[in-house]
Amino acid sequence: MKAAMKKVSLLAGMVSCCAMLSGCLTHWFVDSTTRLQVENGTSQTIVEIGIVSEDGSAYRIWIQDTIPAGEKSRVYEADWVGTFTMQIKTTESSYRFDNIELEGGSEYMVLTDSTDGLHYRFR
């Protein structure tokens, strides 16, 4: 009887471990959210980053935090997967970037100064 209980307990433990692990493994292949960290390599202070709707009529704030020049933001997570227009507001101006591709998972964006405003790249 004790041997049968040990086998059932072992089987239940293995099944629960597999169930938990399969949930974790799906995040390796399918991410429905994007985690974004921003490095401010500009000479300006960033005060807000948001997503603009396709027709330009709506705006949703993603990061409402002050990111001083030369600093990094903390990581922000949101349900943004796809191609978007991103708006970045600084203490001096506002910039829009069209066709930003967010594929889900972790993204690290580096912003730098350029002759025509700001430039971004993902690392």
What keywords describe this structure?
alpha+beta, 8 strands, Immunoglobulin-like, 4-stranded antiparallel sheet, single chain, 123 residues, 4-stranded mixed sheet, elongated
Helical content, roughly? 10-25%
- What overall form do the CA principal axes indicate? elongated
Q: In terms of structural class, how would the helical and strand content be classed?
A: alpha+beta
Number of strands: 8
From the structure provided, what is the oligomeric state, counting identical versus distinct chains?
Answer: single chain
Instruction: Calculate Rg over CA atoms.
Output: 21 Å
Beta-strand portion reads over 45%
Main β-sheet description: 4 strands, mixed
Output the CATH topology of the largest domain: Immunoglobulin-like
Number of helices: 1
The ordered string of helix (H) and strand (E) elements is HEEEEEEEE
Q: Which regions are unreliable across 5 or more consecutive residues at pLDDT < 50?
A: none
Write the layout of secondary structure elements.
Elements: H1 2-29, E1 34-41, E2 46-52, E3 59-63, E4 76-78, E5 82-90, E6 94-102, E7 105-114, E8 117-122
Parallel strand pairs: 1-7
Antiparallel strand pairs: 1-4, 2-3, 2-5, 5-6, 7-8
